Automatic annotation (TrEMBL):
InterPro entries: RNaseH_sf, Transposase_Tc1-like. GO terms for molecular function: DNA binding. Transmembrane segments: none annotated. It comes from Mola mola. This is Transposase Tc1-like domain-containing protein. It comes from the Eukaryota.
Length: 91
């Protein structure tokens, strides 16, 4: 199904661009309904604070201080942008 493939590759896309790009003769409501039936629910991006210059400087300082850490030590770090469960490897 083309709609679900497009929704998988671009999860933030709305029903209007899907309809326009696929030239479908259906309403945007129908597209949204079909996406919901396929378990592709509406998403909004998370609001996050913008990084300031001092944040970037702290990140660089941290990176320079820890550049020589071995892989074993890095494995103990929990990266907040990763999905992890006991059944799967880190992604």
């Amino acid at each position: 199904m083309k709609k679900s493939r497009k929704a998988k590759t671009q999860p933030m896309i709305s029903s209007r661009p899907i309809k326009d790009s696929l030239k479908l003769p259906v309403s945007t409501v129908t597209i949204r309904r079909r996406l919901c039936e396929a378990k592709f629910l509406a998403r909004s991006p998370c609001k996050v604070p913008l990084l300031k210059k001092r944040h970037g400087l702290k990140r660089i300082k941290f990176a320079k201080e820890h550049i020589d850490w071995p892989k074993e030590k890095w494995r103990n770090i929990l990266w907040t942008d990763e999905i992890y469960s006991e059944d799967s490897e880190r992604q």
